[in-house]
Specification:
Elements lengths: L4 E12 L2 E12 L3 E5 L6 H9 L6 E6 L2 E2 L10 E4 L11 H11 L4 H14 L16 H13 L5 E5 L7 H18 L2 E5 L3 H7 L2 E6 L2 E6 L1 H6 L4 H6 L4 E10 L3 E5 L3 E3 L3 E3 L10 E7 L5 E2 L8 E12 L3 E7 L5 E7 L11 E6 L5 E4 L4
Parallel strand pairs: 3-8, 3-9, 6-7, 7-8
Antiparallel strand pairs: 1-2, 1-4, 4-5, 9-10, 11-12, 11-15, 12-14, 13-17, 15-21, 16-20, 17-18, 17-20, 18-19
Length: 367
């Protein structure tokens, strides 16, 4: 474990009877990082968070925090704090009492607690008059700030967040996402954040861990996860994408060659870096994100294109999304900047083009 590693998870497994919730997950988190755990329901992300917090013990494997093995260490003795989806604020306590509760448990002096409560309230942009109110007298967003203040007052080395923004409306969620990013930057605490919201993970996290079936499929920077996914599942889970069937004909040290009956291509070749590590001759998928496709014009000089028919249109304000199909029935999504003059309409047959550097070849798992 490196000097800057705050959390080291090594081959952690968790079973509930015959059901295996975690199947050997390993993850290393550096000090001060913001890491998001994402994946479908039941993938094991909240189970993993509970193992870190100490609410459950792994069936096997090891979790170390700041170089210390956490086996047998009670939650209250770990340098962690957790914010739950349902917040768990005490309704009979004032905001100040809620925020200061962790310090009260540690028998800190009343004057110290009061000073720290004011400090945390300022950090969370909570007005001084809110401190004497009860949680029910606050808005959902204000309650969220109180929960975050309470979790931070004891200066944890790891802040664990279990979908704390999921129950909020879209506008308030955007505000608090910005607050969370500001908080992480200002206090320097390491965040491990479970979320179903993929856009949230992309916006907030330094790195994302994509999970499925109790396994960590890929860990990487948001941009790498989005544009260089490990497989089709990751590609499809992190936002809309297009997966066009192709046949890989040659895998060399520097070039991968492919062909397709539907794709017009100048040479059918890609640099090896633009193909997955496990790519091999045979069926594959050419991945291109919707925003990297362009509706082809006469002046278009892009080397690759495909013909489609538009089957549905969606106006999204700042963007327009077209759903289409190729003659062979392959679905295609394209997203272009919003405009008052739409470049195509339902039923139009158009050509979509892309740059070579904007695509990625994935192995076809179904073969």
């Amino acid at each position: 474990m490196g000097q800057d590693t705050i959390l080291d998870i090594v081959d952690v497994k968790k079973s509930y009877g015959a059901s295996q919730a975690l199947r050997g997950v390993s993850l290393r988190v550096e000090r001060g990082e913001f890491v998001a755990l994402v994946g479908p329901s039941g993938c094991g992300k909240t189970t993993l968070l509970k193992q870190i917090a100490g609410f459950e013990e792994p069936t096997s494997g090891q979790i170390a925090i700041d170089g210390r093995d956490m086996t047998g260490v009670a939650p209250a003795e770990r340098p962690t704090s957790m914010v739950f989806q349902k917040l768990a604020l005490f309704p009979h306590m004032t905001v100040a009492e809620n925020i200061g509760f962790p310090l009260k448990l540690r028998s800190r002096a009343a004057t110290e607690i009061a000073a720290k409560v004011r400090e945390m309230a300022d950090l969370m942009h909570l007005k001084p008059e809110y401190l004497n109110r009860f949680p029910r007298q606050l808005s959902g967003g204000e309650q969220q700030r109180v929960a975050l203040a309470r979790s931070m007052i004891s200066a944890p080395k790891l802040l664990l967040l279990d979908e704390p923004l999921s129950a909020l409306d879209v506008k308030l969620k955007k505000v608090l996402q910005a607050e969370l990013k500001r908080l992480h930057r200002s206090v320097g605490v390491t965040f491990v954040h479970v979320t179903h919201d993929l856009e949230e993970a992309m916006m907030l996290a330094d790195r994302i861990c994509v999970m499925r079936g109790g396994e960590a499929l890929q860990v990487g920077r948001p941009n790498d996860i989005y544009y260089r996914p490990a497989d089709e599942f990751v590609a499809g889970f992190i936002g809309d994408t297009n997966l066009l069937p192709v046949e890989v004909t040659e895998v060399g040290g520097e070039i991968v060659r492919y062909r397709s009956a539907e794709i017009t291509d100048t040479d059918g070749a890609l640099p090896r870096a633009l193909a997955a590590a496990d790519i091999a001759p045979g069926p594959a998928k050419l991945m291109v994100r919707p925003e990297l496709l362009e509706i082809s014009r006469e002046s278009c000089t892009f080397p690759s294109m495909i013909e489609v028919e538009i089957t549905e249109t969606f106006g999204k304000g700042g963007a327009i999304q077209f759903r289409a199909r190729t003659a062979a029935g392959t679905p295609v999504v394209v997203e272009v900047p919003g405009t008052s003059h739409w470049p195509a309409k339902l039923g139009d047959k158009i050509r979509l083009a892309w740059r070579k550097q904007d695509i990625y070849l994935l192995q076809d798992r179904a073969r």
